[in-house]
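G., the chain you wanted modeled:
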Amino acid sequence: MASLDSATGQPLPPQAIQRVLYITPRVHVYQIPPLTSNKGYVAATWTNNPPIFTARLRVIETSVPKDDSEQVSNAILLEDGSSGELFAAAPYHHPIVVTQATDSSRFFAVRVVGDGGRKATLGLGFEERSDAFDFGVTLQDARKTLGLDGGNSSNAATSVKQQTKTETPRDYSLKEGQTITINIGDHGAKARESQAASAGQTDAKARILPPPPSTATLKKEMNISETHPFKSDTTRNTTHSIPNAKDLGFDDGEFGEFQ
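Predicted structure as tokens:
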């Protein structure tokens, strides 16, 4: 059995894929007056009257693969929470389909499309701000997928798929006669270079001269030399005694040489 389009009720191609982007069990639907100025919709004018329906809201993405592209569409569905019967649908093909109210972040104006292409604008009211925030984020992601941001109406998913198909695959295999050379000696060469650099640093450290003496050391040595000018000569004299005649080779004998 072929699947049906949730927004239109028409059968979908067998290869079509549908997924739910967002769902909330309770959202209040209001009948709102026509927009009379360009200031936007004011939710305070809706809530004076009770909602006309309380629905389950779903955002559905439908993807239909083709030969060279992929057709992606999104739709906002308002359904009966108990039976799942469709109450209203809004195909999301332009950002203007959903407009946030100017006085509240929980209320939106949605342009729905009925049987025969009839259009109407309904007000949506979320009970929780977090649900309204998630709804806005989902629509933002949908605009990126459809390429609706920045005024670009082209389908982003289609363009990406076409670009992938048009790219020519590259052949990285080796042709006949080609070889691969692997050099595994780099680590040894780097180690030798490191050792040579370390040896050079050691030799440089060995050739470094000691620092010159300080001024205080020089002054101390000068003071010692001025106080004892002949200290070194006296030390030499006391160390080496004057030789006597016997040491020089003279022998007087018993009575002496000149007696």
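The two ends are 162 Å apart (CA to CA).

Shout if anything looks off.
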